[in-house]
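User: Could you go from structure to sequence for me? I need the amino acid at each position, not a summary. Structure tokens:
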């Protein structure tokens, strides 16, 4: 695989896929959806707290407690500071959770992390990798602009289409929702393909850490739901939102912003782990939701 092709994917394909994924989310959003912030305050605040505060703490703890190389430890932390993505919305839909809550949480966390990621990343890079000429550095203002253009702008454009051309938005969502999932898988698959030797070599070392982080994050979402007295559907939604991250954004950060292929390895592993664990979670909850519905009808 030529360096020119790899460069094209890193600088154009990955950002374009991420923008399309965010645009597809915007197509399902309207300003009135954010009434959830007021009407369902506990669930929204709990979900954002789990996503933006608790998850980075869990990521830092896992990165420090497991015997990982500095690069892998940084990779663990990077996935933990990313927001939820459209994959979490898709899993919530399949699992018959609260899709409206999931979409609003994803949109809000994506907006907040435009500003939080650059600061956390600028701290984490020297913390994990030390200082030296080979350690990558980032510009906080430039990274904020990059994240804004690649996440907030596409979501806003999607919301405009939804507002003024609702019929077209509905047709686009029908095609883009599955396409967004396929694109996320494609981004992960490409990253695995160009770093297969590293993935295989580090799977044993990074796999348990990434699995632990995902399980802890998912359990945290469930516990938050129980703590605020949320119903079964909302609790499952919170578990998915806290446990399923925007792996495409994490890969964008590692490949495009930092230009580091080794750092993308943990994002690939987490992308696979979160899909497997998320699928198991929704299968368990769907059975319980059906039982609840049957009792309600009876």
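Assistant: Here is the amino acid at each position, in order:
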């Amino acid at each position: 695989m030529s360096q020119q092709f790899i460069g094209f994917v890193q600088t154009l394909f990955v950002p374009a896929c991420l923008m399309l994924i965010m645009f597809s989310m915007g197509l399902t959003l309207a300003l009135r959806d954010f009434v959830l912030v007021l009407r369902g305050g506990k669930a929204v605040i709990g979900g954002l707290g789990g996503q933006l505060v608790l998850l980075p703490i869990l990521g830092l703890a896992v990165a420090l407690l497991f015997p990982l190389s500095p690069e892998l430890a940084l990779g663990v932390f990077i996935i933990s500071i990313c927001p939820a993505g459209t994959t979490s919305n898709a899993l919530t839909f399949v699992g018959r959770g609260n899709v409206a809550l999931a979409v609003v949480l994803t949109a809000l966390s994506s907006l907040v992390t435009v500003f939080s990621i650059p600061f956390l990343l600028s701290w984490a890079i020297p913390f994990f990798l030390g200082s030296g000429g080979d350690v990558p550095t980032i510009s906080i203002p430039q990274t904020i602009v990059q994240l804004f253009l690649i996440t907030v702008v596409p979501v806003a454009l999607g919301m405009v289409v939804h507002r003024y051309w609702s019929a077209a938005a509905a047709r686009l969502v029908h095609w883009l929702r599955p396409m967004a999932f396929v694109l996320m898988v494609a981004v992960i698959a490409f990253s695995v393909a160009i770093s297969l030797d590293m993935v295989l070599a580090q799977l044993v070392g990074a796999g348990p850490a990434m699995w632990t982080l995902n399980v802890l994050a998912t359990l945290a979402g469930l516990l938050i739901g129980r703590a605020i007295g949320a119903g079964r559907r909302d609790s499952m939604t919170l578990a998915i939102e806290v446990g399923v991250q925007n792996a495409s954004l994490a890969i964008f950060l590692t490949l495009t912003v930092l230009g580091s292929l080794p750092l993308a390895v943990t994002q690939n592993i987490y992308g696979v782990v979160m899909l497997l664990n998320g699928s198991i979670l929704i299968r368990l909850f769907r059975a319980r939701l059906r039982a609840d519905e049957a009792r309600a009808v009876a």
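One structural detail worth keeping in mind: The chain is about 85% helix and 0% strand.
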